[in-house]
Amino acid sequence: MKYLSILLFFSICLFSCEDKDELEKANQYYNSGDYKKAIQSYNKHLEMKPAHEIAIYNRGRAYEEIGQYDKAVKDFLKVIEINPRNIGAYLSYGKNFYREEDYENAAFQFEKAYKLNTNSTKAATLLARAYHKAGMIDKAMEYYNIAINNDRENAEAFLYRGALKLYLNQSGGCNDIQTAKNIGYEGADDLYDEYCK
């Protein structure tokens, strides 16, 4: 009986270590941009732990990177089912709608993420962008302001708030674009040169 217990203990340790190694391997593949190998490793990990929230989410992001959006969405929805407070899953699910130019549904998902963490500058920025694209100008401006108040280095929010101010003939648009330019946001130089010189 004693030997059986020891054998069982070592078997559990072995499977646990292998499982952890597979997850680490999957994350390394993901970080190096080898998304197909990452997916294979996430799948192996999920055979052992089918409800592992982080592995499912990361696999969804890997599917997204290789353009398999239907599989990505399934993973994001599975994560939300496991943990309805997973901000990343709502943001990723919302980005799918955004990519499809369904800006109202994108905003709906981004708003869920924002409500879970009102300090999330990423959620506020994405929500502002979705409202901006949907033509909901007042809401877009509101959330650009929130994003900037949450993070004074948020170049994306400065750039698009500046562009919106220029469109609305409001003052301060060029100042916002200049700020985005100073922070180093790609494209800010061209926008500044075109509209503010």
From TrEMBL:
Keywords: Membrane, Repeat, TPR repeat, Transmembrane, Transmembrane helix. It is found in: Membrane. GO terms for molecular function: mitochondrion targeting sequence binding; protein transmembrane transporter activity. It comes from the Bacteria. TPR repeats lie at residues 19-52, 53-86, 87-120, 121-154. Signal peptide: none annotated. GO terms for biological process: protein import into mitochondrial matrix. Transmembrane segments: none annotated. One of its GO terms (cellular component) is membrane. It is a single-pass membrane protein. PANTHER family: MITOCHONDRIAL IMPORT RECEPTOR SUBUNIT TOM70. Belongs to the Tom70 family. This is Tetratricopeptide repeat protein. The lineage of its organism: Bacteria, Pseudomonadati, Bacteroidota, Cytophagia, Cytophagales.
